[in-house]
């Protein structure tokens, strides 16, 4: 068990330093420490416990839960803020025509944002890898789906994904290994919804999910407490903390409350060390052979810009001027209605099935694809708000809540933005955090591709509503964020227009990797986490090859 | 002919004996091997002789964590490195007397102290099974090296002479066939006594307290005598059978630790008639009261909601603020066991009240379940309660936190007179308090050395006195 | 779905809940012992019969929701939160309670409250019991979560989030009849 070496003053040296302890950092640490390298992970935020998060959520006022305040229950280090919205803390200042649709939620905590994800583990579609070639929009990946596919398999086994092994229910169906576990079974609502929409080509399929449908390597089976977001009380859902703790058991050292702010480079522009501030604001230095920044789609570009030095005046890894640009998220919206027949949504995990019919096609030359999640979060909270707003009392109130809870549907629609260099993260000139480091500013415009895609989706939704004889049919008018932050350290085939190569290795620095959402060059319409994990595993492989001297 | 008549008489006897399996007639071949396999399952040979996760059955290598140190179970497949060279007599001697073909003694981790009851027929069938029904595996044995003086295997000979019994099972004609079958299974093949009978300071079973309950590492094998307060006297026969077959009896208990393994590997495969026989026998044992118990362990507790006490009591972004048993219970346990401890309606997650794990006077099983979780796979159920110690997918709780949760559970859902301290949890986390003999071991060599020095000094002293006396006179 | 946990909530004195008879249209609180065991008893020191506002609060709750069962301990928690959070509560709760007549329906009570200018407080009280929170904003006081009444309406088919249902993968079981009023009738 090789461990990082600490000096008396608190400086460290290790084979590998990873900044960020989310799913990507955790998986990379686990892979590298298992191969015998000493690994140090630096995490800006706190180390929390699951039970505390559970109790905090139960102690949330109703308004916060009704507003889906998935950030507010997670205690933050005052020295490592993350966005809060109840009320807003304006840590990330978003401007531009679509500012409202890029209000991101992410955690700076040991284990990262997968503490409060829904564990949807989609793969990008093969077409997503060649948007430019096929549809003359966006960017191509420098590798094909086929080349990347084995890494998807690896990531699915690392997470422990439960997915359908019937190819007619898979999206995409091109895969070389079966899912580790059988799919999460449909509940009544999924089955009923499928029976209505699938004859019309909407293709409601099971969402491949990172949770157990059988005891999985000691992980309990999902018990349907419907609370995936913001915290799985029983550990049946995958969280990044699982890999972090596994890496620690093998000798990796994870330091919490360690905010990296400075990156040293040498005459060949290799990274020699990073510097971090601890919770007493004292500075320490971590030296290593190889470095990875896996801080999240906002924090990684922020750090690269903050760490600009003499030899890299526009930011580390930024000779292309692409760091912080091409910011993307699955900006989306919601559609809600009441059905004639009971749906009983809220039985099982928070998301179980999704319409992927409009996920690919020639139309993508003109406008964005979409996917429509049949949201399985219990409808009791919105039902109660609506029933109370009607001024009902007595048994009539109970009956109204019951009616709306059992007949209410919410669809969450995701659209695909194209990478636009003007959708850009920069460092604020006036807002600084408690360490005096500049906070992020983001300018965002979803673009016409998305706006046209939204209109197409509206048509589809109205049709779907009619299939259910929907009552109180409503489509939200503004777009919301989906926390799938991509593009800020974009992948490409050349340093001229990209930050990293297909191994997420920085073009500018031969021993720096930037795996994660930031590297993803095409957003697709599906959740990005599985792709991020696959990128992390591929990057760790590249790192290990180079550590061995094999490249 | 006389031979035929004798044979017929013997066969009739065998067929009507409570100890015979139905197909015991043929001398070799598939039926005998099948019978031997049943004996092997009832005796749970693979619990020790198949290493967990091993793809080769009975090939040994499993380190049994005995209080004296690791005892490695051997390869009992019919290969050269296994028991391929054993004659049936040698096989029988190992099983019944704990003596290897080379004359060395086996440690009673191999429960020859129970298997001595095995009938000739069962030994014969077992031999046939291991020789012809088990795949030979070339796997060398890991030698067992216990610390001095336990490495002196010959000392087992003395131990056996003092504490052991020999002789195969003797049918008690005054009792039913079923009772005898149960007795044979409980004290012989299934060797329940090796866990459930308390042991003396030399680690031999206390024959005056059969099945009265005993610690087992971090866990506690409960009193299973017929006592209505301390044992299974208040259990219905069908509850006992359900427990043995599935590991669970609603309103009574659920098997964890070593008992879960016994159910999973052995008891769930016994025919219902055998399970009934075990139940009949247990219900007929002499009742033994555990001191201090006044009510049956399954009679304690009722639903009590933790919510009113703690809800809204802390900010909604609190950090390290689960500072009492109630809050820890709510955050770690209430999801599955419900805020009032009643578990799921179908009891897939059991109720914490009316549960012997929380009602017993020993909290070992409650604490161990929290520390190590529960894992039990039977035909119809795959049960997993997570562990709250590393490695785990949920929180790693400290000794104090587990003590706090245990006390909350005991007070509200279990026996409120039982209290757990952090130190108790620490012991269980380590594998349980050591029995005297094991605890004394580190002192034995220095103790003997000191003893020798003392003897030498005494001798020198005596000599000096004698020579002084001589000179005086 | 949820086991008979509704019984356990009312077991403040430790009697056998299975044989408990739920009282219709009358207080569950008996004078004396339960009242003095409540956490708010320190409030009682100031006024001559300060148990009255709490009683009024409970009567108001029962009448406006038509729920027979009210957890005394929980009611005290809500009461304290209202005193803290809603300035007009202390003055208005007793007059609100005095509007109640025997066998009055919730709708009638609401109309009477409207006429007396007390409808607002009444709405806040209903909202609090159903959402578990006193106060509508992000600084609301969370009083009950799992015991919030909104979840009771569907307890035959839906969990209170964070609490497991009927064991692993339970949701493939058939759904209850959404039109059934059994659950609501028992409230």
General description of the model:
The complex is a heterotrimer of chains A (551), B (473) and C (187). With 551 residues, chain A is α/β, with parallel strands linked by helices. Chain A is built from twelve helices and 19 strands. In chain A, the strands form four sheets. In chain A, strands 1, 2, 3, 8, 9, 10, 11 and 19 form an eight-stranded mixed sheet that branches. In chain A, strands 7-13-14-15-12-18 form a six-stranded antiparallel sheet. In chain A, strand 16 and strand 17 form a beta hairpin. In chain A, helix 1 runs parallel beside helix 7, helix 5 (145-159) crosses helix 12 and helix 9 packs across helix 10. Chain B is mainly alpha-helical. Chain C has a two-stranded antiparallel ribbon with strand order 1-2. Chains in contact: A-B, A-C, B-C.
Overall body shape of chain A:
globular
**What are the secondary-structure elements of chain C, in order, as H or E?**
HHHHHHHEEHH
Report how far the terminal alpha carbons of chain A are from each other.
25 Å
Please, how many helices of chain A? 12
What is the β-strand count of chain A? 19
Q: Approximately how much helix is present in the residues of chain C?
A: 40-55%
- Quickly count the domains of chain C: 2
Q: How many DSSP E strands of chain C? A: 2
- Beta-strand residue fraction of chain C: under 5%
Strand order of the largest sheet of chain C: 1-2
Compile the SSE list and pairings.
The complex is a heterotrimer of chains A (551), B (473) and C (187).
Chain A (H helix, E strand, L loop, with lengths): L4 E2 L5 E8 L3 H12 L4 E4 L7 H9 L3 H5 L26 E3 L35 H5 L9 H15 L2 E2 L17 E2 L5 H10 L6 E3 L34 H9 L3 E3 L3 E7 L5 E7 L5 E11 L5 H8 L25 E7 L12 E5 L14 E6 L4 H10 L4 H14 E8 L8 E9 L5 E6 L4 H20 L3 E5 L36 E2 L15 H20 L3
Parallel strand pairs in A: 2-3, 2-11, 3-8, 4-17, 5-6, 11-19
Antiparallel strand pairs in A: 1-2, 7-13, 9-10, 10-11, 12-15, 12-18, 13-14, 14-15, 16-17
Chain B lengths: L1 H15 L13 H14 L2 H4 L13 E4 L2 E4 L15 H10 L14 H4 L4 H14 L20 H10 L13 H13 L3 H4 L17 E3 L2 E3 L15 H10 L1 E2 L3 E2 L2 H9 L6 H12 L23 H4 L14 H8 L1 H4 L18 H4 L4 H9 L1 E4 L4 E4 L13 H15 L8 H9 L5 H37 L1
Chain C lengths: L4 H5 L23 H5 L13 H15 L6 H14 L3 H10 L7 H10 L3 H13 L1 E2 L6 E2 L6 H4 L29 H4 L2
Antiparallel strand pairs in C: 1-2
Helix pairs in contact in C: 3-5, 3-7
